[in-house]
Amino acid sequence: MDIPEEAVLLRIFIGEEDRVDGGPLHEAIVLKAREMQLAGATVLRGAMGFGHSSRLHTSKILRLSEDLPLIVEIVDSEDKIDAFLPVLEGLMTGGASALVTLEKARVLQYGPKAD
Asked: What pTM was computed for the model?
């Protein structure tokens, strides 16, 4: 699988407690991206953050059960990302509060370096 040098970065900001069909939203996003043969997806967990509600989410010891911020990042061609966006929208119909961004990305390497 190749990614063009001029690609797109899809970044999805959600909460750890966001769900779809009874399971974690971030897992559903990654599995759907894999099913659609996108180049890859990574879930990053934030130690602290807030969103449109201005409610602070933190990983402090006394508040381990808080809804920590997650970021799902996917880089692929613009066409493949554009095809994924309606699917993503369908996954986030359960009331998940999300921020979704797109930006141009220059891919310098994907996979092992050629000798």
From this structure: 0.85
Give the integer Cα–Cα distance in Å for 53 and 43: 22
Residue 1 resides in a domain: no
The dihedral sign for the CA sequence 50, 55, 56, 59: negative
Rounded (10°) angle between helices 78-91 and 25-35: 140
Tell me the H-state helices in the chain.
Answer: 25-35, 78-91
Look at residue 59 and tell me if it is in a domain: yes
Domain boundaries, position 91: 6-106
Tokens, residue 94: 């359960």
Q: Mean pLDDT of residues grouped by 10 in the chain (115 residues)? A: 90 92 95 97 86 63 68 97 97 81 94 73
Residues 6 or more apart in contact with residue 68 via CB below 8 angstroms: 15, 16, 45, 46, 47, 49, 57, 58, 59
